[in-house]
UniProtKB/TrEMBL annotation:
The keyword Glycoprotein applies. GO terms for cellular component: plasma membrane; plasmodesma; side of membrane. It comes from Sesamum indicum. Its EC number is 3.2.1.39. This is glucan endo-1,3-beta-D-glucosidase.
Length: 496
């Protein structure tokens, strides 16, 4: 009996591992940056963030060489501008595979080839050769004995799915059936994915208030607030799942039922123009954090519960050279220096995309902040915030430089680490910001530095946080530790 139980346990653990391998979060890497990091810098960031799946919009040789021997699973792409040539010539496709795949594999772990991107909607004149391009690329892989290791597909825009809610009524734009039917049969015969780009942000923006923001952001909804498919009675709590199931139903409408959906792009912009108020840091953080948790939990969709929909987040970097509205430039998780645009809320979701650059993030005073606001925030941190500000005493390691900015940075960072590095603990009424640049200097070693033992105060953390503490602005008196007690008394007096 004991051996039987052990055998069952081993099988259970093996199944769990397989399930985890089936569900992944990847990241798209665009290059429309005025200061695009060097491929080695990009790969260093990927390693630090433990990003194991990426998608490139081309087959850049420098990136493929930098990715060699990293184990990172790489999706490369045939750019749209090369599609016509490849779709019209088997030899051109074979040459592309030779140069961009065979020359790098297996040192670079290429797993997938995207043939074009949103071809039907962005380049409709090339659509007639799309299926040929897929077949020619696949034939070149067969000739190189790589067809079992590398899948071939093409990402499509979700707009080709019509009548997408309720999902059970969804169908593809039938004008594309001459392309979609043979394409789906190709994907089926090669055991590949149906690649779909899903952007609840755009669905929300274009719905004119019909789609609630919380429904687009994966926020928890009461059962009576969920959308119900009247035909299947399935409940939908977010746009993402509804769109994935709409794709499954649309394929079923063409008698295809066994091709898995892979989401090649999804995300939310962190900044927008004045007519895009919901393109914000908070919403981008909420959407991507919830998306990552949703995918990695293998929740699946109402139609296919428990079957994960692996997804590539759009995107790694903000692309400042992207044309169009401000939001187009601000989909990135990081800026070009590798600094997080925001810190994802992923506590308890594992180490994938911790988004804090090797857990070494710091809280510093924000450049250009009002000195009186810094003064008040500093006094609060060293008083009610229970930060040990003794290193700021004259003659101690962090006294120099003797400025409000420098002293506030030390106090803010210490409080930030006391509070577990939550984004809310580095706000201080807008005069603080999170950075990956270590502000330590000389013998003044800041909490969170890699050369510090990491010991922090064990004092009781105050119930209030830095965002809601209501710092008083009670004068511009220059802070020194000799007047710390006076400052705290002044803070108390204002409250009283």
């Amino acid at each position: 009996m004991a051996l039987l139980l052990l055998f069952v346990l081993v099988l259970t653990l093996s199944a769990a591992v397989s399930a985890d391998e089936d569900a992944f979060i990847g990241v798209n890497i665009g290059t429309d940056l005025s200061d695009m990091p060097h491929p080695t810098q990009v790969v260093a960031l990927l390693k630090t963030q433990q990003i194991r799946h990426i998608r490139l919009y081309n087959a850049d040789r420098g990136m493929l060489l930098a990715l060699a021997n990293t184990g990172i699973r790489v999706t490369i792409s045939v750019p749209n501008e090369q599609l016509l040539g490849i779709g019209q010539s088997n030899s051109t496709a074979a040459n592309w595979v030779s140069q961009n795949v065979v020359a790098h594999y297996p040192a670079t772990n290429i797993t997938t080839i995207c043939v074009g991107s949103e071809v039907l909607t962005s380049l409709p004149n090339v659509a007639p050769v799309l299926v040929n391009a897929l077949k020619y690329i696949h034939s070149a892989l067969v000739a190189s004995n790589l067809d079992r290791q590398i899948k071939v597909s093409t990402p499509l825009a979700s707009s080709i799915i019509l009548d997408s809610f309720p999902p059970s009524q969804a169908f593809f734009n039938r004008s594309w059936n001459p392309v979609l039917v043979p394409m789906l049969k190709f994907l089926q015969s090669t055991d590949s994915y149906f690649m779909l780009n899903i952007y609840p942000y755009f669905d929300y923006m274009q719905s004119n208030g019909v789609i609630p923001l919380d429904y687009a952001l994966f926020k928890p909804l009461a059962p009576n607030k969920e959308a119900v498919d009247a035909n299947t009675l399935l409940h939908y709590s977010n746009v993402f799942d509804a769109m994935v199931d709409a794709a499954y139903f649309a394929m079923a409408d063409l008698n295809i039922t066994n091709i898995p959906v892979l989401v090649t792009e999804s995300g939310w912009p962190s900044k927008g123009d004045s007519n895009e108020p919901d393109a914000s840091l908070d919403n981008a953080n909420t959407y991507n954090s919830n998306l990552i948790r949703h995918v990695l939990s293998k929740t699946g969709t109402p139609k296919h519960p428990g079957i994960a929909v692996s997804t590539y987040i759009y995107e790694l970097y903000n692309e400042d050279m992207k044309p169009g509205p401000l939001s187009e430039k601000n989909w990135g998780l990081f800026d070009s220096n590798g600094v997080p645009v925001y810190i994802l809320h992923l506590t308890g979701s594992g180490s994938v995309l911790a988004n804090d650059t090797a857990n070494q993030t710091y809280c510093t005073a924000k450049d250009g902040s009002d000195s009186r606001m810094l003064q008040a925030a500093l006094d609060w941190a060293c008083g009610p915030g229970k930060v040990d500000c003794s290193p700021l005493l004259q003659g101690q390691a962090c006294y120099e430089p003797d400025t409000v900015f420098a002293h506030a940075t030390y106090a803010f960072n210490t409080y930030y680490h006391q509070m577990g590095k939550t984004p809310e603990s580095c706000d201080f009424k807008g005069v603080a910001t999170i950075t990956t640049t270590n502000p330590s200097h000389g013998s003044c070693i800041f909490p969170g530095s890699s050369d510090r033992n990491g010991s922090l105060l064990n004092s009781t953390i105050p119930a209030m946080d830095s965002k809601s503490s209501g710092f008083p602005v009670y004068g511009s008196a220059f802070y020194t530790v000799n007047t710390l007690i006076i400052g705290v008394l002044g803070w108390i007096a204002v409250l009283l």
